[in-house]
Fold Argininosuccinate lyase.
Amino acid sequence: MSNKTNQQWGGRFSEPTDAFVARFTASVDFDKRLYKQDIQGSVAHARMLTRVGVLSQSECDDIVRGLGEIRVQIERGEFEWSVALEDVHMNIEAALTQKIGITGKKLHTGRSRNDQVATDIRLYLRDETDLILDEISRLQQGLLDLAEQEAETVMPGFTHLQTAQPVTFGHHLMAWFEMLSRDYERFVDTRKRINVMPLGAAALAGTTYPIDRHYTAELLQFSAPAGNSLDAVSDRDFAIEFCAASSLLLMHLTRMSEELVLWASAQFNFVNLPDRFCTGSSIMPQKKNPDVPELVRGKSGRVYGHLFSLLTLMKSQPLAYNKDNQEDKEPLFDTVDTVKGCLRAFADMVPALEARRDVMREAALRGFSTATDLADYLVRKGVAFRDAHEIVGLSVAYGIRTGQDLGQMTLDELRQFSEVIEADVFEVLTLEGSVSARDHIGGTAPAQVRHAVAAGRQLLLSR
Ligand code: ARG
């Protein structure tokens, strides 16, 4: 045979593949990352073929041993990847045949690269999802510890980034915890749809061999074989869902990042990010920049982009497999790397955050943060809420004119606006009075933060 085209499919070709086309269509440079899952899938496929009598036990043993050796070679960096062999699947199969001879050529019986690659990606994503779930839990653990420590720390809460009402820092951190709990659930849910097995679908229609798909699924710990062969080789919903869950997670991390960047600024000065999470400036000697949260904020862009890449990749694709699908891998791999990197950075950094309690408290004392408390006080004294709102508005205007916050005014000054105000008003105008009054489930009172932390600890234990 003089034909120099690919040995695994070259039979019907009359001229070699154009050199550029070979490189252009090859995926091995990036899909070699799937080697472990590819081997795992092949071992299970071979065992299944043996069980149903398509391969003999000694053929199976040779295949399993050969693949094991290839795995070791790859992990030692001794494996020679060849672009001419197109992708990870054919590289490994060719190496197997070189190693064990003709039996290697039997491995692909009843299988196609179409169900093979779909299986590999699912195995890969299942592994990575498990790592991501653990890392979300680690970040949440750090938040619980910090929230407990800062349960009584008062800071200004914001709406429109304007001082709104006092909140506890612990409560703010537990808001982050809630966001991450939803992210965790989304990945758990996505994992269910990742964990379905394409093998047996072969190219698109299934196979004529007496295969036992349940057995292969069991070996690979998939929950079930995919229900339709056409869908099995072409479905990439699970990858899109993974990127969607990742996008939401990253979006949450950008919100946390934004707050950390603001809080670390001289203008807020609410937290100190330890030096090891910051970098300096090559020109301005005084600078300490919050690079980690800034970079996480920036990295969201690529993950959102990958989500759209995959949605666009799948749009209008006719059944079943199309080569377009080879383009699913790079966005997916980069999403995995980015999510893991950002989570790691956050999980390492959060426990090291130092709250500047006095600065937070000082900030909460400014900006009339207890104005709503005064209105609620008036309501308790029988004033209608709308009238109370007006009275407090006038008091705030007076405070702005005279340069004092509500708690700094004398009783006589306050009574100019309403005669129902008495000496007990000063209790509700304190920051501690304000936060501890919001003592219901989901409220900002220190006692509620402690409840939320306890519930959070239970949640993590149940995972
Ligand atoms: N490298 C291909 C991919 O990533 C593997 C499947 C190729 N199948 C085919 N019939 N060309 O999708």
Remarks:
- The radius of gyration is 31 Å.
- The chain has three domains: 15-109, 114-201+231-359, 362-451.
- Strands lie at 154-159, 162-168, 196-197, 224-225, 271-272, 354-355.
